[in-house]
């Protein structure tokens, strides 16, 4: 029997507000409203409700401003880190090279988290998400994940929309450069209610065994969570299913 799927709550942040992500069509994202958790677009309140719903100390934050070429939302992120001691923040902020991460960590005054991402004993702090859509070329991928230590602590998000990888660096075709933990980001499934792409997950696991897989996009409820765990996912990024009240007691398991 597969271990239960771990749920990692997601905060999508644009212009200082939490927005609802749907199918990766970022221009159409709207401020969060009508959440079953009672959350609204204010980041700290929403983060607290999401973390409580999942009994989690890990939060995934997508800085949509930075991902679309703007400045990182450091004031909002710093406030979250100050108000939530013990938080491990998986930050997807359009990081292109290690200098971006170092500058961001210094600005935020936050240490980088140590230990594997899903290790119960991992330290709190900032954990970089290197997104395939943001890395510009193969050299950038190598610089982001240069050695065994970086490949243990960092996360690589393999991004795609539909059948199209978002991947100027060729990350999808370079499994030898992959870290230990990978996010399978199926943007076309995010907020869609269509279910997760477990066939793709199974194919990747079979082709590159021994990795820790974290899914993103499409999780609808407990049945999907059970099937995702059986397919080999260790965790799943969730937002819509929480705000729509579709995970029930599973969210606190």
From TrEMBL:
The keyword Nucleotide-binding does not apply. The keyword Amino-acid biosynthesis applies. GO terms for biological process: L-histidine biosynthetic process. Keywords: Amino-acid biosynthesis, Histidine biosynthesis. Pathway: Amino-acid biosynthesis. It holds the Pfam family His_biosynth. Gene3D superfamilies: Aldolase class I (3.20.20.70). Belongs to the HisA/HisF family. This is Nickel transporter. It comes from Aquariibacter lacus.
